[in-house]
Structures are given as C-alpha cells and as structure tokens.
Amino acid sequence: TSPLPPPPDGADFVVVANRLPVDRDDSGPEPVWTTSPGGLVTALAPVMQANDGAWIGWAGIPDEDIEPFDIDGMHLVPLTLSSDEVVSYYEGFSNATLWPLYHDVIVAPEFHRTWWESYLRVNTRFAEAAAKTAAAGATVWVHDYQLQLVPALVRALRPDVSIGFFNHIPFPPAELFAQLPWRSQILNGLLGADLIGFQRPADAANFRRAARVHAGFATKSSQIRVPENPESGTGAHIAEARAFPISVDTPTLDAAARDPETIARAQEIRSDLGDPETLILGVDRLDYTKGISHRLKAYGELLADGSIDPEQVTLVQIATPSRERIEQYQQIRTDVELAAGRINGEHSDLGTTAIHYFHHSFPREEMTALYLAADILLVTALRDGMNLVAKEYVACRTGEDGVLVLSEFAGAADHMNQAVLVNPHDIDGLKANILRAIEMEPAERRRRMRALRRRLIRDDVQSWSRSFLDTLEALDDDKDLRRWE
Ligand code: ADP
Ligand code: G6P
C-alpha cells in the first residue's frame, strides 16, 4: 500500500463504526431514518453531536449507495455493504465468529475462511473511506470488533493521522482468543492504533497478554512495542492499551426524566399495568449474552413457589429484535418466547399478567418513562462489555429511588458496586436477590441509588470521550519523545 495524500476538504475528527447512528427503513412508501439498535450508537451519538466531524458507517440495508448527509447535528458518510457481505462479514465473521468468541463462547463460534476474506475486504473498504475523509493530521477513531483490521490499514494509507480504537465488547482471555485462526492478523490490525481502549482493565490486560503470547510483542505496563511491518508498510511505534469505561449521556437522560410529560407517562404506564406494588423491568437486545432465559427461569420459580404474587409484582420484559437471520438468535427468541408464554399460561389471570413481553423497539421518551416507572431493573447478562441499560436506569432515577439488580459479568459491575450484584448462573442466588430487591427498605434503596447516581453524574459519556481523546492527543504530542526505557 502506498500512502494517500490528505483530501483538501477533509474532516479533523472521523469516527469509523460498522453502524451509522441511523438505519434506513425502506419498508414504507417513503424511506425513513430510525435510530440504530445498541449501546455503541447510544454512546457515540451525543459525542458526535458535541464535536464537528464525520461518521463513516453502514446504513443497515444492503446494496444501497447513499450520498453523505447531515442529520441531528451529525455528518454521516454511508458505506455500502452488498447482500453477500451482510451474510459473510456482518452476520458471519462479526456476529457468528467474533461475537461468541469474545463473549466467553456462550455459543460455539464458527470459523469459515470465506467469512474471514469478506471481513478483510470490508475492513479495507472502511479504511479507504477513512483515509479519503480525514484531513491532514486528523484524529481517526475506529470502533468495535467489526473493524479490528482498520487501524493498521489506516496507518499504512495515512501515516500522518492519529488513530484510536475502542472495543465496546469484552476482549477474551488469551486462551480463548487462541482459537481464532486469524489471531495474529487481528492483533496486528488493532496494533496499528496509537491508543486501544477497552471497557474493563481485565479486557486491556487480556489484549496485552495476547499481544505478547500470540504476536510476540514486548509489553510494559500499558504499552506495547510494535515493530515495523514491511508487509503492511507501517513503521515501528509504541501503542497504548488501557481501560476507558464507557457511559451514558447523564445530563440529557436526567433532564428527560424530569420532564412533566415523561413523569405523567410513567404514572400512566403503572396504571395501565394495574398499579402493581412492584414493577420489575428488563430491557435487552434479544441476544444470548443477556441471560434473559436465566432471568425468566428465576422469575418463573418465584411465582411457582409462591414467593411472589402476580397481583402485586409484574415483570415487563423488552427484547429488542437483533441479528434475526442468525440461527443462534432465532433459537434464543424461541427459548425466551416459550418461557414467557409458559409462565403467563400458568400464572396470569384475567386482569393480571405475570410477564408483559415486547419484541420491538420503543421511542427514547417511552424508554425514559419505563425507567422512571420501574421499581427494579434486572440486568442478568452472562457476559457484557459494559451494559448501558444499567446506567440509563440510574441516570433516569431522579427521585433517588429504585433498585438495580446487576450481573457480575457485565462491565458495569466494575464500578456500580452499590447495585445488588448477582451471578445469573446461580438461579437460587438470583431468586434470593430479586426478593431482596423487592423487599429492600426505602432508606437502603436511597443510599444505594444516591451513590450510583453520584458516580454517573461525574463519569458520563462526554467525560469518557474526553478522557480517551485527550490521552490520544497527549500520545500524539509525545510521539517523537516517547522511547522504550
Ligand atoms: P448492547 O449494546 O449490547 O445492545 P447496551 O445495554 O449497552 O447493550 O445498550 C443497549 C442500548 O439500546 C441502550 O441504549 C438501550 O436504551 C437501547 N435499547 C434497548 N432496547 C431498546 C428498545 N426496545 N427500544 C429502544 N431502545 C432500546
Ligand atoms: C453492541 C455492539 C455494537 C452493535 C450493537 C447492535 O452494542 O457493541 O457494535 O452495533 O450491539 O448490534 P448490531 O449488530 O445491530 O449493530
């Protein structure tokens, strides 16, 4: 690869992510733009709105060439994926190889050479788009597991830019990562970045260990010495790999939860549900990593053994459609819907519904009203990079009441230890903790929620991006000074 000249009208700040913040929906008479699913978009949209720059990503439908456009204060540069690439790069390598491998192999990852080739091809296209969009000396910030080859590819094309990478999902222990036939290519791809950010210190440590064990690079505290790579055309440099736990837009959520319309809507939701004494909420993408089946098992047993009365307690479970053509996602949908149907069949009555189950997305305002209405939020992920739903709930609890039941296996547990922490694999423990949350005294609820909110007000998504980008900038300033001591 030979380096490209910077474009004359390039952007100083370029975000590169598989998804744009909006999806194009062509199912109606007129195309409409809807918010894309998932935590990456939730976190990055407010960052992008506060910064000038361009966001390169896919608009969620195959085979559509869409011109760059502006929406909600963001400049978006759509990148086209063919139908074949959606199958092999997105549903295949990204979500049936990497996603399960990086989430503790909850389901078995599949390794196919044709998927890898597609991943390499699409990553190359993203890197070329970034190289054509970034101004001289710009900051290019690449996001998530779908684009791990992009940092080194951008470095080869544009040695003048400063490159950051942030992984929104866990990074697996070196022993699991070892399964990946293309592990050294992935490591070399990521190590093209100057700064590689992870959700938890444990993820960063796993990555540095993988760089030592599987790429043979020397590491010292958070630094990794990356030698020159004549094959990709990149020079020697020192990369930094550290944790930067992501967060939510706390001030915006807090303000939305104080809006009288939201408050009225929250009351209406409770009364529509028959004014239960305790309203429990679950909000997840319908993904096998979220532990929805474990949660329903515990809840069903509590109803069956008479520990909770469906006239007093009700569960609202929102399961957002996700990656619906992948077999494992079809399986989890069947499992969850069967379990919810069974529990309702046994424990609901005319006028009392044990579980209210929804398989669709909701507008932001409705989500806020639901968080405000719920006495308890259940997060039972078997493995999760961070889990922004947990943070959104806390940000919306302006009355400083409500209980967060949080899995130890979500990144959020690292710094939300005032939550009721649970091991979702331990069904008896999960049941006991759900009961504990239902019965918790108001004073204890308040003490815990107040502490959780204090932390979230300080550590919001803007402070996350500032901290990452300031670190990247400082590394760039020191580029020539930094030596391996
Ligand atoms: P993930 O990124 O794995 O989906 P997170 O919990 O980090 O998990 O982020 C999920 C994001 O998606 C949150 O911002 C949440 O509010 C949003 N979300 C989840 N379900 C829905 C839904 N049904 N309607 C609207 N937004 C949703
Ligand atoms: C998680 C991933 C994101 C992804 C999102 C939604 O948050 O970290 O990269 O965008 O899930 O998944 P999807 O496959 O619909 O983009």
Automatic annotation (TrEMBL):
Organism field: Brevibacterium pityocampae
Protein name: Trehalose-6-phosphate synthase
Family as reported in the entry's similarity comment: Belongs to the glycosyltransferase 20 family.
Family matches, as InterPro entries: Glyco_trans_20 (IPR001830)
Lineage summary: Bacteria, Bacillati, Actinomycetota, Actinomycetes, Micrococcales
Highest taxon, organism lineage: Bacteria
Gene3D superfamilies tied to this protein: Glycogen Phosphorylase B
